[in-house]
C-alpha cells in the first residue's frame, strides 16, 4: 500500500503496527489502518500507541536526553541541516504523501514540506545564538543566567497541517537540548510523525531522543501525566486543550496551548471589491476551511455587502471539489464523516435561524461544496462556532465600532484582518481587536514560522511558537554565580 510505486523514503512497511524510538518497534497498542480521505481507500497501516507505549517512550527519552544536552551546538546543528537536506532530496514524494494523507491539494503538501525545511534550518540557527545573559552583580562575583532544556517535551499535534504543526515544536525542542515524545493525530500519523522520524533517522539523530507514537486521546493523556515529561506543547481543539491543561496542571508541567479560532476579516466600504472577495474566499475555503486561522467571519460594510456576496458566489460556483492531491479539483474532502456532519449541522441550523444560503450547502462524498452564508448574526452557530469547513460566513456592519464589537464577540482570539486602502483607519480598528495575529490588507491565514505565533483566550496561552518564542518555550533559565572564594558571613 505504498503511496509511490517505488518508495524511496516513506516506505510504510517500516511502521506497520509500529512506533519509533530510534528503531521501529512493535506498538503495544497494536495497529490501525489510515484512510485516504479523497478515495476512502486504505493508505497505510500505522501503530496505535497506548499508555504503556507512551510510558516506555518517556522513560527512554529521559535516559537519552542528558547526553544530547551535553553535545556541542555544532554537532547538534548539523543534525537539523542534514534533516533539511533529506526533506529537500525527497521533496516531491513527501509533498504528495502529505497532500494525500490530509486530503489536500498538492500545493498544500508542498507548502508543508517547504515550511518543514525552513523550520529545520531555523532549529540549526538557534544553536548559533547566545544561550544566556551576563548579569550585573556585586564586585568580584560573576553572575549569569543560562538557558537549559526542560528534559523531555511531549508534543501533541492535529490532523490539518500535521507536518508543520508537529515540527514547529519538535525541531526547536530538540535543538534546545530536550528529548521529544511526539504523538501525532492517528488520522495523519505519517505526515505528523513517521515522516519526521524518517528525516531524523537519516540525519543521524542519536537513538532515544525522538519518539513517534500515533494514538488517540488515551495516549495523549498518558503523555500529559507521565512524570518524565516536563513540558507539553499541544496544538488542537479548545476542548481537548482544556483537558490537556487540566492533566498537565495537576502534574505541574509547563504547557503551551495552540487552540481553535473564530477569526474575523473586516472589509471596509472603500476596499477594492475584487481583491476583498479573493482574500475572503482564500481565507474561508483554503484547505476546506480546516485551518485554525481560517476566516470564520467576513464582516463587510453594509453598503458593499451585496456586491461582495455576488463575487463570493461566483467564486464558489467556479471551484471544483474532489481529489485535489491528484490535481483533479481545487478543493479536497473534509478529514472524516463526523466532521462533515458537523459542518452540515452548523450550516442547516444557521439557515433555520435566519441565515441565507447563497451558494453550496451540499456534499459529494466527504467533499463539502464551498458555501456562502449571508445574513449571519450573533446567536447563530455559523457566527458563534469554529466551523472547520469551507463556509464563508458573511455578516454586515454599519460603523467601525460595530465591526470591532462583532469581531470581538467571541471567546477566541487567534487571527484578525482588515482590508481598506485607508491604512490609518484600518490600523486604528486593528488596535482594538482581540487577537494574537493581526493583518492589515490581507486575510486571516498567514504564518511565517519566524514570527511568534499564538492566540489569546480560548485560542491558547499565546505567542508560544516560532522565532524569538522558541527559546522561551523550550528552555528554562538557570541563574549561576561564581566567586573566587566563599565570603565570610557574620555568623
Ligand atoms: P483535537 O483536539 O481533536 O486533536 C488534536 C490532538 O489532540 C490529536 O493528536 C488528538 O489525538 C489529541 N487529543 C484529543 N483529545 C486529547 C486528550 N484528552 N488529551 C490529550 N490529547 C488529546 O483537534 P483536531 O480536530 O485534530 O484539530 C482541529 C482543531 O485544532 C481546531 O480547533 C483548530 O483550530 C485547532 N488548531 C489550532 C492550531 C493553532 O496553531 N492554534 C493549528 C491547527 C489546528
What does this 3D model show about the protein?
By secondary structure, the chain is of the alpha/beta class. It has two domains: 261 residues, Aldehyde Dehydrogenase, Chain A, domain 1 (3-Layer(aba) Sandwich); 178 residues, Aldehyde Dehydrogenase, Chain A, domain 2. The protein is built from 15 helices and 21 strands. A seven-stranded mixed sheet has the order 14-17-18-13-12-19-20, with helices on both faces. The chain has a five-stranded parallel sheet with strand order 9-8-7-10-11, with helices on both faces. Strand 1 and strand 2 form a beta hairpin. Helix 4 runs parallel beside helix 5 and helix 9 crosses helix 10. The protein is globular, with a radius of gyration of 24 Å. The chain starts with 17 loop residues before the first strand and ends in an 8-residue tail after the last strand. The site of nicotinamide-adenine-dinucleotide has 29 residues, from helix 7 and helix 8.
Amino acid at each position: 500500500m505504498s503511496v509511490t510505486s517505488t518508495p524511496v523514503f516513506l516506505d510504510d512497511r517500516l511502521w506497520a503496527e509500529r512506533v519509533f524510538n530510534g528503531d521501529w518497534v512493535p506498538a503495544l497498542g497494536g495497529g490501525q489502518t489510515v484512510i485516504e480521505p479523497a478515495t476512502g481507500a486504505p493508505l497505510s497501516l500505522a501503530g496505535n500507541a497506548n499508555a504503556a507505549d507512551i510510558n516506555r517512550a518517556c522513560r527512554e527519552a529521559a535516559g537519552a536526553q542528558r547526553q544530547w544536552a551535553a553535545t556541542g551546538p555544532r554537532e547538534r546543528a548539523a543534525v537539523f541541516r542534514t534533516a533539511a537536506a533529506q526533506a529537500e532530496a525527497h521533496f516531491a514524494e513527501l509533498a504528495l504523501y502529505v497532500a494525500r494523507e490530509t486530503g489536500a491539494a498538492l500545493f498544500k503538501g508542498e507548502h508543508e514540506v517547504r515550511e518543514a525545511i525552513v523550520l529545520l534550518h531555523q532549529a540549526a540557527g538557534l544553536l548559533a545564538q547566545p544561550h544566556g545573559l551576563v548579569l550585573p552583580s556585586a564586585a568580584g562575583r560573576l553572575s549569569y543566567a543560562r538557558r537549559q532544556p526542560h528534559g523531555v517535551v511531549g508534543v501533541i499535534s492535529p490532523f490539518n497541517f500535521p507536518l508543520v504543526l508537529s515540527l514547529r515544536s519538535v525541531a526547536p525542542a530538540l535543538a534546545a537540548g530536550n528529548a521529544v515524545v511526539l504523538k501525532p493525530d492517528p488520522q495523519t500519523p505519517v505526515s505528523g510523525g513517521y515522516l519526521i522520524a524518517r528525516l531524523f533517522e537519516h540525519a543521524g539523530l542519536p537513538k532515544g531522543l525522538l519518539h513517534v507514537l500515533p494514538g488517540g486521546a488515551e495516549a495523549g493523556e498518558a503523555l500529559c501525566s507521565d512524570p518524565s515529561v516536563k513540558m507539553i506543547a499541544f496544538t488542537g481543539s479548545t476542548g481537548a486543550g482544556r483537558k490537556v491543561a487540566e492533566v498537565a496542571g495537576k502534574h505541574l508541567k509547563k504547557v503551551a496551548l495552540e487552540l481553535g479560532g473564530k477569526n474575523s476579516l473586516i472589509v471596509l466600504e472603500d476596499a477594492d471589491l475584487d481583491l476583498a472577495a479573493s482574500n475572503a474566499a482564500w481565507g474561508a475555503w483554503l484547505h476546506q476551511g480546516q485551518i485554525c486561522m481560517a476566516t470564520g467571519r467576513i464582516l463587510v460594510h453594509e453598503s458593499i455587502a451585496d456586491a461582495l456576496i455576488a463575487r463570493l458566489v461566483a467564486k464558489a460556483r467556479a471551484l471544483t471539489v474532489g481529489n485535489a492531491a491528484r490535481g483533479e479539483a481545487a478543493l479536497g474532502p473534509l478529514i472524516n464523516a463526523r466532521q462533515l456532519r458537523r459542518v452540515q449541522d452548523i450550516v442547516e441550523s444557521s439557515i433555520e435561524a435566519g441565515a441565507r444560503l447563497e451558494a453550496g450547502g451540499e456534499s459529494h462524498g466527504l467533499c463539502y461544496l464551498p458555501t456562502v452564508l449571508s445574513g449571519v448574526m450573533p446567536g447563530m452557530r455559523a457566527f458563534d462556532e469554529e466551523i472547520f469547513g469551507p463556509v464563508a460566513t458573511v455578516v454586515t456592519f454599519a460603523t467601525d465600532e460595530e465591526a470591532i464589537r462583532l469581531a470581538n464577540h467571541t471567546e477566541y482570539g487567534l487571527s484578525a484582518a482588515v482590508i481598506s486602502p485607508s491604512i490609518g483607519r484600518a490600523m486604528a480598528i486593528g488596535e482594538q481587536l482581540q487577537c494574537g495575529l493581526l493583518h492589515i490588507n490581507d486575510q486571516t491565514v498567514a504564518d511565517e514560522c519566524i514570527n511568534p505565533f499564538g492566540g489569546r483566550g480560548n485560542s491558547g496561552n499565546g505567542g508560544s511558537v516560532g522565532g524569538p518564542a522558541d527559546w522561551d518555550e523550550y528552555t528554562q533559565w538557570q541563574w549561576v554565580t561564581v566567586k573566587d572564594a566563599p565570603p565570610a558571613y557574620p555568623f
